[in-house]
């Protein structure tokens, strides 16, 4: 990226989480490289979001509040982008926060990247009630397109993306209510590359979601990506289909649909016989959650003892 300094817009969609949204907003205002524009999109909160005086009166970053009537997360992000003129866009979910150097580190990497690079991704920590439960650091060498066909590794809060790329792709699909970001990043990866900054610069909060909603959303994604998956070489296709069958089976168990879970887990096992996880969850579907979780607790305690002996934190999973 050559020539004059690119401008940056931050976009925060929110709904009925005003305290979280203001915490996210303040993490933007605490950046070592401040954005040129900040748009908060209140997508139909039952109590409309209001900006406190310290935000309204600060003169470092222009803050614009846009109101929609429950258009959905994809439409809310698109509306936020439409309110800006910056050449780079950074999304921040209302329950996430940026660490102070997030924009500066990503902008510096994108500035030295070729024009074919659409944006920069960084890592994140996932917290549950103040406890770190997962750390994700993106792999520097990967086939992003095939990785995204398997699982949604990119998160909106971790990406700084070129505005021209969003315009070229038509933004988020507003008809998708839960997998709109997964869909966008997959479409992006078909035509562009994403640079990797292998550092944790975002903090995310674990959110409980209705298991049936999670199951329906996941199945929507699998159906949406089906044509692309079928175009892969046989071995790669079978591997990804096994992952999707396994995940669908686990989500079906969580949603209380044991029959569907067994069907999907058997499909995963047939596609990838050497993979032990489908077999383990088939056992769960057979013995029930009470026995399963008891046995799992014992197994995890043993694993934790081994990790502690090796000087590792057993509470943190690495994705």
Which terms would index this structure?
alpha/beta, 3 domains, 319 residues, Spore Coat Polysaccharide Biosynthesis Protein SpsA, Chain A, Serine Threonine Protein Phosphatase 5, Tetratricopeptide repeat, ten-stranded mixed beta sheet
Task: Characterise this structure.
This protein is an alpha/beta fold and 319 residues long. It has three domains: 198 residues, Spore Coat Polysaccharide Biosynthesis Protein SpsA, Chain A (Alpha-Beta Complex), CATH 3.90.550.10; 77 residues, Serine Threonine Protein Phosphatase 5, Tetratricopeptide repeat, CATH 1.25.40; 30 residues, no CATH class. 47% of the residues lie in helices and 20% in strands. It is built from twelve helices and ten strands. Strands 1, 2, 3, 4, 5, 6, 7, 8, 9 and 10 form a ten-stranded mixed sheet that branches. Strand 2, helix 2 and strand 3 form a beta-alpha-beta unit. The mean pLDDT is 90.
Could you tell me the radius of gyration in angstroms? 21 Å
CATH homologous superfamily title of the largest domain: Spore Coat Polysaccharide Biosynthesis Protein SpsA, Chain A
Q: What is CATH's topology name of the largest domain?
A: Spore Coat Polysaccharide Biosynthesis Protein SpsA, Chain A
Number of domains: 3
**Helical/strand content category:** alpha/beta
CATH architecture term of the largest domain: Alpha-Beta Complex
List unreliable stretches of 5+ residues: none
**What's the rounded overall pLDDT mean?**
90
Q: What is the CATH C-level name of the largest domain?
A: Alpha Beta
What composes the largest sheet? 10 strands, mixed
CA-CA gap between termini: 31 Å
Q: Can you count the helices?
A: 12
Helical fraction equals 40-55%
Oligomer: single chain
Q: How many E-type strands?
A: 10
- Give helix and strand order, one letter per element, not per position: EHEHEHEEHEEHEHHEHHHHHE
Q: Tell me the fraction of residues in β-strands, as a range.
A: 15-25%
Shape: globular
């Amino acid at each position: 990226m050559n020539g004059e300094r690119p401008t940056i817009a931050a976009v925060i969609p929110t709904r009925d989480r005003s305290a979280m949204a203001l915490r996210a907003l303040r993490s933007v205002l605490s950046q070592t490289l401040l954005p040129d524009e900040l748009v908060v999109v209140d997508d139909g909160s039952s109590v409309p979001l209001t900006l406190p005086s310290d935000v309204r009166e600060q003169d470092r970053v222009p803050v614009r509040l846009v109101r929609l009537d429950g258009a959905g997360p994809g439409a809310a992000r698109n509306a936020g982008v439409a309110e800006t003129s910056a050449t780079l866009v950074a999304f921040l979910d209302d329950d996430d926060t940026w660490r102070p150097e997030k924009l500066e580190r990503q902008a510096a990497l994108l500035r030295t990247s070729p024009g074919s690079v659409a944006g920069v991704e960084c890592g994140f920590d996932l917290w549950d009630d103040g406890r770190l439960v997962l750390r994700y650091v993106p792999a520097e060498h990967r086939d992003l397109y095939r990785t995204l066909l398997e699982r949604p590794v990119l998160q909106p809060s971790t990406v700084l993306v070129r505005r021209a790329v969003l315009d070229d792709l038509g933004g988020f699909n507003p008809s998708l209510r839960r997998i709109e970001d997964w869909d966008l990043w997959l479409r992006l990866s078909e035509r562009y590359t994403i640079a990797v900054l292998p550092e944790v610069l975002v903090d995310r909060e674990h959110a409980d979601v209705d298991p049936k909603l999670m199951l329906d959303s996941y199945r929507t994604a699998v159906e949406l990506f089906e044509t692309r998956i079928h175009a892969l070489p046989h071995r790669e296709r079978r591997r990804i289909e096994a992952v999707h069958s396994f995940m669908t089976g686990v989500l079906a168990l969580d949603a209380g649909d044991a029959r569907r879970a067994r069907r999907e887990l058997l499909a995963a096992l047939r596609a990838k016989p050497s993979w032990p996880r489908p077999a383990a969850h088939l056992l769960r579907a057979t013995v029930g959650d009470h026995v399963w979780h008891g046995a799992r607790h014992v197994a995890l305690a043993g694993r934790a003892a081994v990790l502690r002996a090796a000087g590792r934190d057993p509470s943190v999973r690495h994705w």
